[in-house]
Amino acid sequence: xxxALGAADAGYxxxxxxxxxxxxxxxxxxxKQLPQTYPFESIEEPTVNSxxxxxxxxxNIEVLTSAEIEKIAGVPGQYDISIxxxxxxxxxxxxxxxxxxxxxxxxxxxxxISGTATLMS
Length: 121
What we know:
It is built from two helices and five strands. By secondary structure, it is of the alpha+beta class. Strands 3-4-5 form a three-stranded antiparallel beta sheet, with no helix packed on it. Strands 1-2 form a two-stranded parallel sheet. The longest helix is centred in the middle third of the chain and has 10 residues, at 48-57. The mean pLDDT is 90.
């Protein structure tokens, strides 16, 4: 989303394709996030929510949710993109493609550490 905003703010038309029904992925599920500002003492509201709102309201960004890229053909600067949506397939032309794979929290149960931690002072 940050890349989409950067390109859109520079005046380019952007199509953001999201496979899920909403933007933000796991980050949009966060209740709070680690501190991002000095003095770094208190957890903060997640910044992803404001980014989502900026993306949705930006005049240069078209958001397609519940959609997937079917095919990318062409060369840098001249891509032909096929996007599968609920309403069928859309064809788009693009100069650049940015792939964001997203993230998921790691399952700490896979660490194989058993027992409890002891704190010493």
